[in-house]
Design a protein that fits this description.
Distance between the termini: 16 Å
Shape: elongated
Number of strands: 3
Helix content: 55-70%
CATH superfamily: Winged helix-like DNA-binding domain superfamily/Winged helix DNA-binding domain
Oligomer: single chain
CATH topology: Arc Repressor Mutant, subunit A
Number of domains: 1
CATH architecture: Orthogonal Bundle
Largest sheet: 3 strands, antiparallel
Length: 107
């Protein structure tokens, strides 16, 4: 099993991990994702755009009064991709626990 190169980047991994446990109809606002990821506005926007382009995240923009609001949620494809990436990470943990990681990853 291989890592998902889109998700594997640390900020995107944090974003996916923050969105994954949410119920399907729930979203996180940009400011919440910014706090969880530690990213700047521009950096966060870029990572969300990458995840959206991959089909993993749905971005919704609207207004609350006169203030713009950006919210994000995982798509079905995003949930599946993140679950597979979690399997990849669990495999690494299991191999390390079994003491066989070095043998399996030796070129």
């Amino acid at each position: 099993m291989e890592p998902n190169d889109v998700i594997h980047q640390s900020t995107r991994l944090r974003l996916m991990a923050a969105l994954y446990p949410l119920p399907v109809d729930q979203r996180l606002e940009f400011k919440q994702l910014k706090a969880l990821s530690g990213a700047t506005d521009g950096n966060l926007g870029g990572h969300l755009a990458t995840l959206e382009k991959a089909g993993y995240v749905l971005i919704e923009k609207d207004f609350v009064g006169k203030r713009p609001r950006t919210r994000a949620s995982l798509t079905k494809d995003g949930r599946r991709a993140f679950a597979r990436h979690l399997e990849f990470l669990r495999d690494i943990l299991d191999q390390g626990r079994d003491g066989g990681a070095a043998d399996r990853y030796r070129p």
